[in-house]
Amino acid sequence: MVAGMNAGLPKPSQVVSLQDIPGLRGMIVEADGAVRIAAMTVHAAVAAESRLAGGLAVVREAALQIAHPAIRNMGTLGGSLADADPNADYPCALLAAGADIELAGPRGRRICPVDAFFLGRFTTALAAGEIIVGVKLPPPALEETSTYLKFSRVDGDYATVSVAVRMGWRDGACTAIRIALGSCGGTPIRVPSAERALVGTKLDVAALRIAAGAYVAACDPPSDFRGTADYRRMIIPGLLERAVRNALNADRGIRS
Amino acid sequence: MSTDRTTLSFHVNGDPQAVAIPIHRTLLEVLRDELALTGAKKGCNTGTCGACNVLVDDVMIRSCLRLAVSVAECKVTTVEGLARNGMPSVVQQAFLDAGAIQCGFCMTGMIVSASALLAQNPAPTRDEIRIAISGNLCRCSGYVKVVDAIELAASRFRQGNAAEAAAMEIRI
């Protein structure tokens, strides 16, 4: 926001800092394994969280790939989500993770599932006067794995295309999967029908190609200096396959 | 933009400071325009280039992206504060000796990044060094000598108690 102010827009009449509000920083693991990350937790702290493993590694890996060290020391989870930049890393990762966004406002607290939170470019389900308090990540199951794969022109840039995956894997087959695609439209997207079709498969190349085709068809990528829409569509299948393979290799030592 | 003013109290390079500022001033503007500490540069002013890097309570940040009022009562260290008794710090001397200074504009931010890195990781690999300065843009594109300089500083630290010495450099 300060970067925007320095550039001449926006010109807020008032700025309210959340930095000294107790309880808005840090991460806790609840009894059932669910993880709550408070909104003012900086990216560097999330990137260093070894407790974000297995099905939740996707969130840590995204935090680690946001911009550069000094920015990761300043930027916050809540700030990134509220900004809702379509090219940002956290929105895509949290969509795959299936997070609940916890909001607070004059009329109390409410939970917004991540699937309903991002409405468009820089637009969220936040109502006037509401703030993000934190996110809750569903408990990781034993057989779960996840990853965040970012393709960018140079280290620290926004993604040209990114893919986040959270999935279950048991006895050589996929038991559940969420795949989010970033930088390919106004919001990160999922294609639930394509995800459902992968459940029960071995996540072999043929099955992943079909899923990738559905994501290519469903997305609406921009053409900008990071790449044309066609270029983005072209790299989605390879990136999606690689993300799934990386997730499997990370925890299971299995090559698809 | 508001014309409200406030008095900001904080510590800069070990000295207590109290300056009257408009509330929308960035930390970078206060350091440069109010305190005449021009080591941190205003490059892009949007958080991209890294020339304005400083330490707030020993954590490296972009001073162009912090509103000055948000560092009230904090300890700010600029590149000027890394020197001791008028002598360059180990990192600063290594940049001089390795010929890494070049045009100089990005260099103060590079030195702050290097000092922050070595305080956490006194024996970084070249890859770790490159990641640490990945947020510092150099228009001379002379990154190789910068990496050499940080390796040189690390090797000089290793001759003493590395972690302690590196941490000392950013603590005032």
Which labels suit this protein?
heterodimer; A: 256 residues; alpha+beta; Uridine Diphospho-n-acetylenolpyruvylglucosamine Reductase, domain 3; Enolase-like, domain 1; five-stranded antiparallel sheet; 9 helices; disordered C terminus; B: 172 residues; Ubiquitin-like (UB roll); DNA polymerase, domain 1; 36% helix; 16% strand; globular
How many beta-strand elements of chain B?
5
The SS-based structural class of chain B is: alpha+beta
| Number of helices, counting only DSSP H or I runs of 4 residues or more of chain B | 6
In what range is the share of β-strand residues of chain B? Answer: 15-25%
Q: Sketch the topology of chain B as an H/E string, one letter per element.
A: EEHEEEHHHHH
Shape of chain A: globular
Largest interface: A-B, 20 and 27 residues
In round numbers, the mean pLDDT of chain B is: 92
Instruction: State the end-to-end distance of chain A.
Output: 43 Å
CATH superfamily of the largest domain in chain B, by name, is [2Fe-2S]-binding domain
* Strand arrangement across the biggest beta sheet of chain A: 1-2-7-3-4
Q: Could you name the CATH class of the largest domain in chain B?
A: Mainly Alpha
CATH architecture of the largest domain in chain A: 2-Layer Sandwich
The main sheet of chain A comes to: 5 strands, antiparallel
The total beta strand count of chain A reads 10
Radius of gyration of chain A: 18 Å
Low-confidence spans of chain A: pLDDT under 50, at least 5 residues?
Answer: 252-256
Describe it:
The complex is a heterodimer of chains A (256) and B (172). Helix content of chain A is 32%, strand content 23%. Chain A is α+β, with helices and mostly antiparallel strands and 256 residues long. In chain A, the strands form three sheets. Chain A has a five-stranded antiparallel β-sheet with strand order 1-2-7-3-4, covered by helices on one side. Chain A has a three-stranded antiparallel β-sheet with strand order 8-9-10. Chain A has a two-stranded antiparallel sheet with strand order 5-6. In chain A, helix 3 packs antiparallel against helix 6 (89-97) and helix 7 (192-198) runs antiparallel to helix 8 (205-218). The relative contact order of chain A is 0.13. With 172 residues, chain B is of the alpha+beta class. In chain B, 36% of the residues lie in helices and 16% in strands. Chain B has six helices and five strands. The model of chain B has no long low-confidence stretch (mean pLDDT 92). Chains A and B meet through helix 1 and helix 4 of A and strand 4 and helix 3 of B.
